[in-house]
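no rush on this but wanted to send it before i forget. theres a chain ive been looking at and ive put its sequence and its fold in token form underneath. please have a look and point out which stretches look like helix strand or loop to you. thanks a lot i owe you, the record is right below:
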Amino acid sequence: MAVIGVELPQDTLVLTKGRDFKWTFTNLSAAGKPIPFPAGDLYFEITTSPSPTTWPFTIVGNTATIKVESTAVDLIPDKAKWQLVFLPDAEAAGGDALARGVVKVQQ
């Protein structure tokens, strides 16, 4: 059977109990050159109950950064599913999944 759509590999988002989560990355072109992010929102969406948890990035030019305080990190359960989502400015909801996976909580 054919696969229709983008099948993303499963990655691991490693969180450490009692520690902040910080990550920075640069948007690169197909040629490997830094390029500005398009207008929109970038965030982690984590499956939690009763509703998903979202952690937004701050985007400046070609750089996206995120910092989540340890108190919020500690609320995420081990083996929770997550997606990295980009929501363009013109869209009200939905967006594009860029990565997905499962959380690994380490002590």
Notes: The longest helix spans residues 70-73. The mean pLDDT is 96. The longest strand covers residues 96-106. Residues 51 and 79 are 16 Å apart (CA to CA).
